[in-house]
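Ticket reopened. Same input as before:
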Amino acid sequence: MSMSTAATATLAVTKVDAPTIEYGKLSPILIIAGVAVVGVLIEAFLPRPARYRAQLTVALVGMIAAFGAVVWLARDLPDDHRGSVTAMGAVAVDGPSLFLQGTLLLIGIASVLLIGERRLEPAGGDAFAPQAAAAPGSQQEKDAAAAGWTQTEVYPLTMFSLVGMLLFPAANDLLMMFVALEILSLPLYLLCGLARRHRLLSQEAALKYFLLGAFSSAFFLFGVAMLYGYSGSVSLDKIGVASAGAMDNDALLLIGLAMVAVGLLFKVGAVPFHSWTPDVYQGAPTPITGFMAAATKVAAFGAMMRFFYVALPGMRWDWRPVMIGVAIVTMVAGAIIAITQTDVKRLLAYSSIAHAGFILTGMIAMSDAGVSSTMFYLVAYGFVTLGAFAVVTLVRDARGEATHLSHWAGLGRRSPLVAGVFALFLLAFAGIPLTSGFSGKFAVFQAAARGGAGSLVVVGVLCSAVAAFFYVRVIVLMFFSEPKVDGPTVVVPSVMTTAAIALGVAVTVVLGILPQPVLDLADKAALFVH
Amino acid sequence: MSVVLILVVAAPLLGAAMLLLPGIADRAARLVGVGASAATLIGAVVLACGFDRGRGMQFETDVSWAPSLGLRFHLGIDGISLPLLLLSALLTLLVAVHSLWNIPPGGDSRAFVALFLLLETGTLGTFAALDLILFFLFFEVVLVPMYFLINRWGSPGERGPASYKFILYTLLGSAVMLLGFLLIQAETGTFDMVELADRHGAGMSHGVQVLAFLAIGLGLAVKVPMWPLHTWLPDAHTAAPTAGSVLLAGVLLKMGTYGLIRIAVPMLPEGAETFAPYLAAFGVVGIVYGSLVCLALLRDPDGDLKRIIAYSSVGHMGFALLGIATLTPQGINGALFVNIGHGLITGLLFFLAGAVKDRHDTALLGRLGGGMYGRTPRLGALVAFGAVAGLGLPGLAGFWGELLAMYGAYEPAAGLSTAGYRTFLALAGLGTVLTAAYMLGLVRRLCMGPAGEAPTGRPEVDVTGREVVVWTPLVALTLLAGLWPATVLAITDPAVRALMGGS
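Engineering reply: fixed in the latest deploy. New output:
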């Protein structure tokens, strides 16, 4: 009897059905994956001089096409805006996925424009090392620089990372989420180490990011295993069903939940998993920092929301207090440590930590308003961040970008336009009314207050005030201090960086003055498929 | 007509935007400042002419802005906001005219003019806003330009710390205030100030009202400034350029008391009842404390003239707080009158202090010496006029507000301890005596005594024609409001009674 059962089981296993996959619904991800592969082929088969143009064209056209696909899929969403799951339940195509994928693609387009900028280095070339394999300071490196080499692997690497980011918030099972996490992280580790200037700092950043990132991925994977052990499935839906009725303190569930959360909190840079942020932001090539700061947050918060809203809504009484604590510590630490920073990139890094806290505030609301306000905040924050880092690439002296704050003194007198744009971004970070930062903060705080997280709102508002102080201080420094004699100059960029900055300014102003259309869109897209 | 109100609020902003255009010369920039603020004042006067005292909220605009966030663009004025609107527009115009000839070194005069125009939009908007978030928005708009004005054009050596203190206090204050607004909205579902005032706290439990009043009151008390949250004010005033001091005293401080009258008291009556005695007590402490500090500064050779005027502001605003804390129409009318009187008189005093400082390169009493009557008799007479107006001499604008506030304290609203308020009344009365002491002492120190040499050794000029242009409106209005208080009270009284829900 038992023999025959085993035999049937074996038979059943051997008769595997091919998985049905609706390729159309995955088209944005597949397009970008295709672009990345084509990028690798370009590296392999095109002559060096032709690669730059080809890479740039393929990447931009691919991202625009993928954005078109997102819009097409969003139009096909049923009227109740509930999406569907595809790829055997592994990927969700619903409002939040599509909204965040659209945001990621727009950020990706702007980032590739920054990455492709080649007017800023006086000796020619872009922000990336002429030959990444050459040891810093070696003869080999000097030869490569003298030969005027430029590398174009950054484009496929960025595209691969973008594939992971597109998949991360859409992943509907934990295994797919882990795969997406790795796809998005590994190219980023590499990209961080490719800076043309300050190469040791850049390589140190890459190593730190890699080690800590690998560690956090291990946490995530171990957490996945625990949750599988608890529920017998990696599917978020099934974990949600299994954990809905969890009455007793099941160690597997709680440990799994905590470990997956650690992995996710690391990616968004929340305290106490934030220590990599300032070093990596400072060391990485600035266009990559912008891309990473804006896009990784969007993707990781998307995944985090799906994880908590779909898999663990029944456990909210267990995880919410912890997350409220994390959000408070993140906001306070980010805002206070930022005051002491003297480097622009580190300042922006700590401000990104504080913003991670603000975004967590929206997520913790556990309501549709929480989801929509978080997504709105991500859009607002993403473009401000990208724009701010784009401005950082322009302010240069003989040693490359002049990131020390004292060099920025009096910038407003030399180049009022650039300083004015940076001031706008700082005001948006500070959440001053009529910028996107205010609308975003207002939306998340309102959602949190309605969701019963009043303590978070109090801390959040006070931290915004502290943060506003140091942003305003930078503005004063730029406009009201005497310029240094040997201070940096502002390099006039090509149309690409200009376009990226203009996009940032436009989003910041429009979302500040007329936020309603995007808020509506986020409201409609706020339902996770179950 | 409601378009006029929008234009009044927007005109300074347009002026500031014009200054961003490239190729505007220094002179043209100053003229743009005068033009924009004159247009604003004309608009405000048109509003005042078309204002119907019998009706409540007028010239209303109510447009949905971002419905998902509950934001509305809702403007309108009534008898409470109209006098303050006029005062702000007038003082900004005077500052603009003053700046035709006097912009302290600090660089670009375009930026200077643009900043005080931006400040004007913020203050006018604050007085006209009828939506809590819009109110907050305009309230915030005021902070940043003021910070820049102090930080860049203030007196060297003092401006850095003073401006940091200013922005830290006021930013934290408004953050706390925003929390209160969010709490009100979470409980009632609306940010509309008219509707909330009509409800008189309906829909909010006692605890919520107390909490919301605490948050909003704290935020506004920083701006008032209420003792012990006043410490940013003397530093800011001492460091700020003349234009900044005038606007700070004449316009910015009014936003705090206005907010208490417009928002905290009518919308949160139970909260107001709970905190009114504390508010009154702090107000009275401010009155006595302010005048004692002034007396001490007067004896100190390092006493700064501007610092004395700043501390006298703390005292005057104490009267406004006492008036509000009585929760009676008389008291609140008194508080509004104190606002107007203080705006005119302290505005004038800061102009005078600026003129003295320009002539002597110092505002330290020890170095100024006395004898102003002998050397520059007209300037001396104006200082004496400002000082006696400041001490609340009957017949001048400072008198009625203090009288009404104290009258209100004699018979506070039902539910408040009459004995307690009469004690406050007595202390405030002591304060008026002390105020008279230091104001007269100031006149003696500065104006009387042997004429002697001018401290700088330069020949001194008496009041110039330009100064006459700027100061005359303030002197005239101080007299007008003092001799004929009905000009102000007839406008404010119906609105105050409507707001308090009485008849």
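Chain B touches chain A through 32 residues (CB under 8 Å). The two ends of chain B are 28 Å apart (CA to CA). Please confirm and we'll close it.
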